[in-house]
Design goal:
single chain; 215 residues; alpha/beta; six-stranded parallel sheet; 8 helices; 16% strand
Length: 215
Amino acid sequence: MNEMLASHFQTVRTRVEAEVKLHSIIMVTSAKADDGAKLTAFGLAECLASAGHQTALIDAAANPDAAVNGRFKTKARCGFPIYAMPEGDGTQSRARDALESLERQVREEFDYTIIDAPPFMHHNVTVALARTVDAVVVTLRLGRKPSKADQFTLHALGRAGARVLGIIAVTPESIEHFDEVGGAQYIADPIRRVAAHAANGTTGAGMQIRARRAR
């Protein structure tokens, strides 16, 4: 990570440590695509992990078709695990149950859980998460003009009762060179564990997290 990006994320980490209690979940989102949410989520998770915190990153923005059994692994060592959002069977109640199960597990297992979420209002999961996470970081790509989407996002987060920790400005150069903060490691790579799941009789987000932590 170059010095400018390292300093940027260390500043965000310091604020998180000062204002967000341990065993919390922080969602990183934006009003529009390509505003640096993925970069910020990854960079913040890496800084927290480097500072000695048990940290996890949940990729809620990944294409579900790239996942097998809701699990992802990284192709290189990041110092923290990356998970996919658990999927229900398409019904609202099952989706809510999966989200609640994931929330319980990560609060028990990790000091901080960072969620890389899709742009707000682009996906139902972001709206649902806004009501359950402890804090929200909104990213904004420098250079683009403020839009109604930005105003709407902040207004909707307020109505959902979300605590907005701050708005993080991200330079286009940082987004383009995501590999500078380890972006090359943040690649979805599905792994099949169907037989292992059946053998131990454990399913769901809890099993996924415990298995990944044991690796």
